[in-house]
Amino acid sequence: MNTYVILLRAIGPITHKVMSMTQWRDGVAAAGFAEPATYLATGNMIATGPGTIETVTGRMNRVVRGLGLAESNVAVVRRPAELRAVLDANPFPEAAADRPSQMQVFFFADRQPDFSWTADHGGPELFAVVDGHLVVDYSGRISESSRLGNLIEKRCGPGTGRNWNTLKGLVERATAREEKDT
């Protein structure tokens, strides 16, 4: 049995009318996962179950489709160690300390997206790649970067972003789950 962190793409008030977090937890439990726990109301879950990242991703996507969400609401699955590695790398320590809600980590369905375009990006944002994840420091200007998420997805494929505070919360909870299960 492994602990997994599941991040759903494009979750918000509109999708909550189709699939509540309670329905998602119940669906994941019915699919054979132990103790599914959501964190915040934005499509973050920690669950324990058998399988590889690939098989768990397939199972999560089937649960989400079965609950009525669209193909665009993909599940991105990671092991807690992968999230800890991003957190430990902390490529923008000042931003993480002073404005963590202005720093975002993007997780992609494709495990090896092409990040070459970031070198030519002319915006004020700073980018760092950590183990296949894109960390963005919006330099305190997240409201001025409203199109960046679409550009990132266009260049890197389907994925989802979480701010630094959410990443920290997920790592804390997933680590506690792993320690409890050992």
UniProtKB/TrEMBL annotation:
It comes from Paradevosia shaoguanensis. This is DUF1697 domain-containing protein. It comes from the Bacteria. InterPro entries: DUF1697 (IPR012545).
